Amino acid sequence: MIASVRGTLLFSGVDHCIVETGGVGLQVFAPKPVLASLGEIGVEVRLYTHLHIREDQLALFGFTTTDQRYLFEILIGVSGIGPKVALSLLSSATPDELRNAIAGGDTVRLARVPGIGKKTAERLVLELKTKFAVKGGPLPAGAVAVLAGVDTDLADMLVNLGFSAGEASAAMAALPADAPPELEDRLRLALRYFGSV
Predict the structure, then answer these.
(1) What spatial distance separates the first Cα and last Cα of the chain, rounded to whole Å?
(2) pTM for the structure as a whole
(3) Which end of the chain has less Cβ packing within 10 Å, N or C?
C-alpha cells in the first residue's frame, strides 16, 4: 500500500497531477479542491494516497488530509460508487458537508453531483447514514468535525498497530452509531472488530 507521496509537482490538470519522487513521476488522481491547493509547478507537495487495484489497472488517488482519504475509502465501499464518483463527491463539498448531507438524508443535494443519480444518492444515504449519525438523528453542526478528527487519529493508530488502511476503514465502519466520541473507547471497539472477524 502506498500511503503517502512527497515530491516535486511536475503537472496539475483537471483531475490529476504528476508528482516526481525519486526520479519517478507518479500520476495521482485527486479531488478538485486538492488540485487547486497544490500551488505552483516545481513546489514540493505531500499527498496522503490510496492505491486502487483492479485486474486491468493500478491507480493512485491523493488527498491533503487523512480524513479525506478515509472518507474516499468509505465511499468506494458503497455498491455502485467507484473511485471517479467518489472524487466527484469530494470535489463537490468538504468531508464534513458530505457527512452532514448523508447523515441528514439530503438525497437532493447528493443527486446534483455529476455521476450521482437519485438511486445512487438513496443508496449512499441507506448504506452510510448510520456511520455518520448518532442516536436521535444527524450529528449537530460542529460535532461532525470533532468526530472526524477523532476518527482520523483512530485510523492512524490502527495503521501504526500494523493493520492496513483498508482494515482500519472496515473496523471504523463497523463502529456502532452510538459509539462514544472518546478516542480510547473507539479504539477499544475497533480492536474488538478484529477479534470477531
Answers:
(1) 21
(2) 0.69
(3) C
